[in-house]
Amino acid sequence: MDSDLIQAMVAKCLVDPDFLPAPPHLARRRERGARRKAKPSASLEQNKEGSDEFSALAACDLFAPECLERLALFRGFIVKVKHNQVRQALPLTFRLLPAVAEELAFFRYYAPAYLAIRAGGPLALEAQVQLMAKHLHDFLEQDTGLARKAIADVLTHELALWTLRSHGAAPRPPRSGGAIAWRGRLEIRRYGTDVLHACGALAMRNIDPARDLRDREHTLAYWRPADSDAVEFFEIDELTAFLFAMVDGRRTLEDIAERVAVLGMNQIGVPELEEFFQDLAARGFLEAQRGRVSRSAAARRGRNLPCA
Amino acid sequence: MAAASSKRSTEARIDAFGGRTAVGLSYSAFAQRVVSEQSELIDFVEIPFEQLVHTPEAIRLRESVPLLLHCASLSIAGNSPPAPSLVSRLRECIEDTATPWLGEHLAYVRADGVWREVAEHPALLAGGLSPDIAAVPFNVGYTVSPQMSGPILDRVLERTLEWRKELKLPVLLENGPIYFPMPGSTMSQLEFIGSLCSRSKDVLLLLDLAHLAITCRNFDLNPDAVLDALPLDRVVEVHLSGISEQADAAWDDHSDAAPAMVFNLLDRLLRRTRPQAITLEYNWDNDFPSDILRRDLDRVRDLVSVHAG
After folding, report:
1. Considering only CB atoms, which chain A residues are within 8 Å of B176?
2. What residues of B are in contact with residue A8 (Cβ under 8 Å)?
3. pTM
4. What is the per-residue pLDDT across A51-101, written as a single tens digit (0 to 9) for each?
5. What is the pLDDT of residues B91-115, one digit of tens each?
6. Do A14 and B182 count as a contact with CB atoms less than 8 A apart?
7. Strand B249-253 relative to strand B242-246, pairing
8. How far is A84 from chain B (nearest CA, A)?
9. Residues B200, B161: contact at Cβ < 8 Å?
10. A124 touches B: beta carbon within 8 Å
11. For residue A184, which of A96, A190, A207, A226 is within the disulfide window of CB 3.0 to 4.6 Å?
12. Which residues of A touch B152 (CB under 8 A)?
């Protein structure tokens, strides 16, 4: 067979997202989609391998099955190399993937989607980061093993840092009287593994999955002050996470107290919340008038307020 | 590199670094930091032509360190030649960098859209028709090790010598890593390279020892035996990089340091020949550890020194 024909077919395998067989789970998804759309009597054979062209490729018996598998992996490898710039956003994720032997498996999975979008033109770094992160999360969800949970957590952690560093503090919303608002931007993420321990080992380039990946349920808050480029993060308990989530620039102390009461935590009332949020204001986390977070004007006048 | 920069003649004997073996680094943001903070560590930076096209200001590195120009755009083993505008830009970069040679890949990066013709004319598969090729090329955007066959060998030889003449400097051919058996191959990469070198004394090599190790691992070959059988007197430059083992195969990895196997191959090579340049391809991770770089630079220089006599 003509040498250039063979080289062209290989090139097509590497750049055309639909030419190589899809990973098994995507093929099954396509089949399910085809079954839903097709009449009961419709044949599934046309969709089984993903494309008519692949049928021709397979029919010509040019590539042994193991060769096609390596081609698929090589295509993923090329996509991986084309994501080298994403390392600056997700350096530890990139180190953990090969450490748990998931790197090529992921990029093999991701390659068709990336190639389909990339065909429309180059992607800016931010778009590339978000695209890869989305598909990595999808890939990881297929398995609930510790390694994949850990990758998901490291990815979530790095994305939170990247997003806050890239996008800066959220614009300050206009505040109604007495509403509590952040003086910067705060994000909350929940984890099922000891993400900070894993990240520490990855940062030292000394990751041992058996030693450094372990289950641990916990919550981190990520904070970027309005007047700073620095992003810090700290562990918080569930109640603090709930209270942090209540701060949206519209809710007052009383609104938050009503929400707390709904949860049955009657021991936490407005005075306790005022002390809690006043402490945050004193440390620079919250907008405050004359340095204080106070009850709303309506509350001071003794009016009952509806839930926000 | 005064001798090489003033002689853009195919007859010029390469002597880029005054007779010694220079040790350098592939271009990256990490390499830029090394140049700005510890330029004494390296003798040169190898910079991709494609990088200069994307960020022309990178040429300013030349103010601090000699540059070697590397290329992945000529697609020497393919049937889709580069556009004239690309060749024109390449000539400018050759001049701007004053590189003594151009390192290019024994590979292809583009192929014409022959497959479309085949899909529409199945008889082509049986050799019944001659395709009228007029389709959009496939640009892989990455080097692909070609079919190791007579027709491709003829093309690579012809193109390499043509580029050498047209660009007026030696064009080194770099052995690519082979990850899958290319259908229609009739010889090994070793045989292919050996045949190229036997057919012309002007065929010079950029020997990537990590790629050699990868190919040997993936095809169950003895890397020492393969290295020994190569025409090592044609090796002008050497590449070293990391190797990743995944999915039951070895893969190129420029985010990791070269493993012991690659340094062993370097030791073995240096017993027989003295390349003019050895490049550490540690250019995929901008946070590559400086201490590991220093360690490996020292290791390379020690090996060069041991075998210098």
Report:
1. none
2. 111-115, 138
3. 0.86
4. 444 444 554 567 777 788 899 999 999 999 999 999 999 999 999 999 999
5. 999 999 999 999 999 999 998 765 5
6. no
7. antiparallel
8. 6
9. yes
10. no
11. A226
12. 3, 7
Please judge whether A6 and B182 are an interchain contact, meaning their C-beta atoms are less than 8 angstroms apart. yes
The predicted complex's ipTM stands at 0.90
d(CA A161, CA A36): 41
Q: What are phi and psi of B139, to 5 degrees?
A: -105, 105
B208: phi then psi, degrees, rounded to nearest 5: -95, 110
Cβ atoms of A216 and A191 closer than 8 Å: yes
Distance (Å, whole) CA B180 – CA A65: 11
Chain B's closest residue to A75, CA to CA, is: B140
Q: What number of other Cβ atoms are within 10 A of residue B154's Cβ?
A: 13
Which amino acid is located at A30 in the chain? R
Dihedral (C-alpha) B282, B288, B291, B296: value to the nearest 10 degrees? Answer: -10
Strand partners, B105: B174
What are the structure tokens assigned to A228, written together? Answer: 């700073």
Pairing of strands B67-70, B44-48: parallel
Between A64, A103, A205, which is nearest B246 by CB? A103
Chain B contact present for A100, CB below 8 A:
no
Name the residue among A12, A81, A104 with its Cβ closest to that of B138: A12
Query: A97: helix, coil or strand?
Result: helix
- What is chain B's length? 309
